[in-house]
Amino acid sequence: MRIWGKASPSHRGGVSVAFRISHHKTMELIMLGTGNALCTRCYNTCFYLRSAGGGLLVDGGGGNGIFRQLRRAGIAVEQLRHIFVTHCHTDHILGVVWLIRKISPLIHKGRFAAPLTVHCHPEAAHALRTMCRLMMSEKICGALDDTIIFHELDDGEEFTVGDLALTAFDIHSTKLKQYGFQAVLPDGQRLVCLGDEPCAAECEHWVAGCDWLLCEAFCLWSERQRFNPYEKHHSTALDAGRMAGRLQARRLVLYHTEDRRLATRRTAYTAEAAQHFTGIVHVPDDLETVELA
Ligand SMILES: [Zn+2]
Question: I need a labelling partner for 255 at 20 to 30 A (CA). Which of 53, 195, 199, 290 fits?
Answer without folding.
Answer: 53
